Amino acid sequence: MRKWFLGLASLLLVLGVLVGCGTDSEQSAKQSSQGADSTENQNAAEQKEDSVTIVLSQNNGEKQIAKKEVTIEKGTTLMSVMEKNFELETSHNGGFITAIEGVSQDKGKTAWMFKVNGENAKVGAKDLKLSPGDQITFDLHAY
């Protein structure tokens, strides 16, 4: 009887160890998978944080011409981003945008105006330093 009890105890001990190890492997695999997902989400968030979105439209947003998400570096000005990513025409020594992507203002009637995060800009594109996540909207409309 004692041998039988000792055999049963040994069997239960072995099963307990195997079940415990199996649970650790499953949890480890699950944590590893969650870690990979978290890293992917973090990388996507970091990419968004290092970029700005620029929308070109006409008539107060009635017609969208283009939309681009652009990666920026610290201290980048709006004008430098626009020059690198869009076809521009300027006046006043490059300080005033008169055409974007071949769409020109009608002198005396319409002009390219821009907003930053939904608010009218307080400085020109040459002086505006962009921050990650900024939403820039250039709109050609009557003034």
Draw up the topology in text.
Blueprint lengths: L1 H48 L1 E8 L4 E9 L6 H8 L2 E4 L4 E5 L2 E2 L5 E7 L2 E2 L14 E8 L1
Parallel strand pairs: 1-8
Antiparallel strand pairs: 1-2, 3-4, 4-5, 6-7, 6-8
Quick summary:
With about 140 residues, the chain is of the alpha+beta class. About 40% of the residues lie in helices and about 30% in strands. The strands form two sheets. Strands 2-1-8-6-7 form a five-stranded mixed sheet. Strands 3-4-5 form a three-stranded antiparallel sheet, with no helix packed on it.
What keywords describe this structure?
single chain, 143 residues, alpha+beta, Ferric Hydroxamate Uptake Protein, Chain A, domain 1, 2 domains, five-stranded mixed sheet, three-stranded antiparallel sheet, 8 strands
Describe the structure.
This protein folds into two domains: 1-49; 50-142, Ferric Hydroxamate Uptake Protein, Chain A, domain 1. 39% of the residues lie in helices and 31% in strands. The protein has two helices and eight strands, in the order H-E-E-H-E-E-E-E-E-E. The protein has helices spanning 2-49, 78-85, and strands spanning 51-58, 63-71, 88-91, 96-100, 103-104, 110-116, 119-120, 135-142. A five-stranded mixed beta sheet has the order 2-1-8-6-7. Strands 3-4-5 form a three-stranded antiparallel beta sheet, with no helix packed on it. The radius of gyration is 30 Å and the shape is elongated.
Q: Into which percent range does the helicity of residues fall?
A: 25-40%
Task: Please write the string of helix (H) and strand (E) elements.
Answer: HEEHEEEEEE
* Terminal Cα span: 101 Å
Largest pleated sheet: 5 strands, mixed
Quote the beta fraction: 25-35%
Overall body shape: elongated
Q: What structural class do helix, strand and pairing data support?
A: alpha+beta
CATH class of the largest domain, named Mainly Beta
Radius of gyration: 30 Å
- What's the overall average pLDDT, rounded? 82
Q: Largest sheet, order of strands side by side?
A: 2-1-8-6-7
CATH architecture of the largest domain: Beta Complex
Number of helix segments? Answer: 2
Work out the number of β strands. Answer: 8
Structurally, the number of domains stands at 2
Find the CATH topology of the largest domain. Answer: Ferric Hydroxamate Uptake Protein, Chain A, domain 1
